[in-house]
Amino acid sequence: MASVKKVVIIGAGNGGVVAANQLAKSEGVKITVIDKSPFHVYQPGLVDMLFDEKITSDSIRKETRTLLYKNIDFVQKKVIKADIQNHEVVTDDGNKIGYDYLIISPGVTEKNKFGFPPWHDIESITKIRDSMEDLNGKNVVVGYYGLIKCPAAPFEISFLLKRKYPKANVTLLNPVSQPPKLQVPMANLLGQTAKEMGIQVKRGFKLSEVKDNLMVSEEGDKVQFDYAIIDSPIKVHKEFEDLSDSTGLIPTDKFSLKFKDFDNVFVIGDATNITFPPKTGAMAHFEAVYVSKSILSDINGQEKTKFDGRAMCAIYAGINKGMLVYMDYEKSTAQGRNLAFYVSKKMFMSLYWASLTGSINNLLEGLSSAFATKAIPAN
User: Fold this and answer.
1) Which PANTHER family match (predicted)?
2) Which of 74, 162, 299, 375 sits most deeply, having the most CB atoms within 10 A of its CB?
């Protein structure tokens, strides 16, 4: 009888939970998920929470234990080291958990150079929401200055700001002069929406200094602001810095999602150094599905496939309008803008929890395959 293989998953975010539940459907594996938080947050819902007081923390948060299959062990501890050489994970109580396969999905933290309030957790977004007064007539700046999670999110925030405060002077700072070819279809629709809504987009604005109510770029351009929401670049948490490269993220083969040349260690989610397609929950979901299949194929001696980098998500694109974006490593498309995709974006706040258990995997796979046929090669 084959021995049971131990799979340890660091992190109970989107990727970690999806991978665990996918693996739990098979026999011959013992799965342990480790995360310091008892809660799992639907992160795209933070943008909604910022502008809709009807959305509370309970709307976008559930206890992690309730999202995992019963045959999965959940250890609520902080990981202080992933000891790759000795095949074990060390938690802050000194416990060492051995593994045959390791999935690293710990999420990221921020390189907050200028001290702007973070907004990627419930507590932070609540503080920002509470700090908002009537912004009509004010100079409001939204933007980012490095590699962030979802590059569409600052646009979404700008659109929702302009919807709530139509007389606000909204400026969006984008450090990228020209979007990568894969992101051109999405960037074109987002730019079109911004123009129609009277939002000024400053491309190539690389923030270098903030003094009083003035932002200065590396080229010396200046932008005045009364209120600002600025996203900071990401990096791995300090506990995983020994695994990271010069980008501050963990080197990951984009086709196998393996860490360096370790056949039994995988990295998924925001912590990978894969930058295109952009980092999103959708990307983490499809990475998790791929890695779980890859591990089971390895256990069963079956042939493994290559990950194609697919990701698909709905994005707010104006007042009561949304768009749907599909990307993989080679091609992309952006469909919309229309009410249907706006409604889809709203509905996914409820469907998200089902996506974690795998109960709508066939739907997501079918939709992604359908939109893949509409995608245009980047080269």
Assistant:
1) FAD-DEPENDENT PYRIDINE NUCLEOTIDE-DISULPHIDE OXIDOREDUCTASE, PTHR43755
2) 162
SS3 249: coil
Cβ atoms of 97 and 32 within 8 Å: the answer is yes
| DSSP letter, residue 378 | -
SS3 of residue 126 by DSSP: helix
Edge-to-edge order in the sheet of strand 139-144: 200-203, 169-174, 139-144, 227-231
Count of domains for the chain: 2
CB 146 within 8 A of CB 175: yes
Cα(306)–Cα(290) distance, integer angstroms: 9
Q: Is residue 169 assigned to a domain?
A: yes
Picking from 231, 261, 285, the residue at the C-terminal end of a domain is 231
pTM: predicted TM-score of the whole model, two decimal places: 0.96
The Cα–Cα gap between 71 and 88 comes to: 21
Q: Which residue has the tokens 């925030």?
A: 157
User: Where a domain ends, among 263, 287, 307?
Assistant: 307
Cα separation, 68 vs 61, whole angstroms: 14
- 181 within 8 A of 333, measured Cβ to Cβ: no
Which residues 6+ apart lie within 8 Å of 232 measured at CB? 110, 111, 112, 113, 114, 116, 118, 144, 145, 146, 148
Q: How far apart are CA 259 and CA 127, in angstroms?
A: 37
254: pLDDT strictly greater than 80: yes
- pLDDT of 222 reads 97
Structure-token match 């700090």, residue found: 131
The DSSP secondary structure of 35-96, one letter per residue, reads: -S-SEEE-TTHHHHHHH-TT--GGGSEEEHHHHS-TTEEEE---EEEEETTTTEEEETTS-E
Backbone angles phi, psi at 281, to 5 degrees: -60, -35
Are both 132 and 206 inside the same structural domain?
yes
> Mean pLDDT score of the chain, rounded to an integer?
96
Q: At residue 225, what is the residue type?
A: F
pLDDT in tens, 228-244: 999 999 999 999 999 99
Range of the domain at 45: 5-108+236-307
Distance between CA 192 and CA 318 in Å, rounded?
A: 10
